[in-house]
Design brief:
One of its GO terms (molecular function) is oxidoreductase activity. The chain has 241 residues and is an alpha/beta fold. The chain has five helices and twelve strands. The chain folds into two domains: 95 residues, Elongation Factor Tu (Ef-tu), domain 3, CATH 2.40.30.10; 129 residues, 3-Layer(aba) Sandwich (Rossmann fold). Helix 5 links the parallel strand 11 and strand 12. 36% of the residues are buried. Bound molecules: flavin-adenine dinucleotide (FAD). The site of flavin-adenine dinucleotide (FAD) has 21 residues, from strand 4, strand 5 and helix 1.
Length: 241
């Protein structure tokens, strides 16, 4: 289906959102992804003109899809994407994927996001908030520096306005930031989980992990070690990071 670029927005240091107007209404569930194919590449890319990206908007935000990504200079695809003029048409294929929230999935849920892995959780939390669903969510969101926290203001507002949404953000390299960080530090490791979810092995929650493959593997292993059975874990690996 044809998607028209209607808006671009900086989300955080290095992260940009692209808003697309579909030629016809498309139904999708929060957390799903699309294949996005650029009409041609301005900069060469050995992987070609197609990538998968999560739809970071929620189905409650009608009329557009939002794609949020970290722009990388070494990616010809992303350099081309970042320079597309507004009004450009591209090809979208989807929705795809099973890393999604159904309204009947009442949880409670714990979300582990590594960097840009926040995109499906942005879609899901926005959906829960907009529909005022009674679904408890605890988001644990890790970034290198505070400047790289995408959707920060929005996430802080959700947490402040909705007793069901709990958020903990951690920063792994506060010394590399210009901003003074007084929150949690470190990666999503045993120490951080011990602080935030000391009795994780006995919780009745569903655990969701999204981010670069190495992060997802590490958190999956850790949850196993802490007594969480694999049937309670859902993962989405952002191959390519
Ligand atoms: C389900 C899903 C959802 C995603 N959602 C997002 C999102 O919301 N935002 C976002 O920024 N990214 C998302 N990604 C990752 C995205 O598709 C890109 O791969 C990533 O952004 C890196 O793109 P790139 O052009 O910078 O690097 P690339 O040029 O794509 O990749 C860099 C390196 O990784 C290798 N590589 C990449 N992909 C694969 C693969 N599939 N199999 C084997 N090797 C590979 C390449 O060979 C290359 O060496 C998602 C991936 C998946 C699978």
């Amino acid at each position: 289906m044809k998607l028209k670029l209607v808006k671009k927005q900086d989300e955080a240091k290095g992260t940009v959102s692209f808003f697309w107007e579909p030629e016809k209404k498309v139904s999708y569930l929060p957390g799903q992804f699309f294949y996005f194919t650029l009409p041609s590449l301005k900069y060469p890319d050995p992987r070609g003109a197609t990538r998968h990206f999560t739809i970071s908007s929620s189905p409650t935000e009608e009329g557009f899809f939002r794609l949020s990504t970290r722009i990388r200079e070494e990616s010809g695809y992303k350099k081309t994407l970042n320079e597309l003029p507004l009004g450009t048409g591209i090809e979208g294929e989807g929705p795809n994927g099973t890393f999604l929230l159904d309204e009947g999935d009442t949880g409670p849920h714990v979300f582990f996001a590594g960097g840009i892995g926040i995109t499906p959780f942005r879609s899901i939390i926005k959906f829960v908030v907009d529909k005022n669903l009674n679904i408890p969510i605890h988001l644990i969101y890790s970034n290198s520096i505070p400047e790289e926290i995408a959707f920060r203001k929005e996430i802080e507002e959700w947490q402040a306005g909705h007793p069901n949404i709990k958020v903990d953000m951690a920063v792994s390299k506060p010394e590399e930031s210009k901003e003074k960080w007084e929150g949690l530090t470190g990666r999503i490791d045993e120490n951080l989980i011990g602080k935030l979810l000391p009795n994780i092995g006995s919780l009745n929650s569903i655990f969701w992990i999204s981010g670069p493959p190495a992060m997802v593997d590490a958190v999956e292993d850790l949850l196993g070690k802490l007594g969480v059975t694999s049937n309670k874990v859902r993962s989405e690996k952002f191959t390519g990071y």
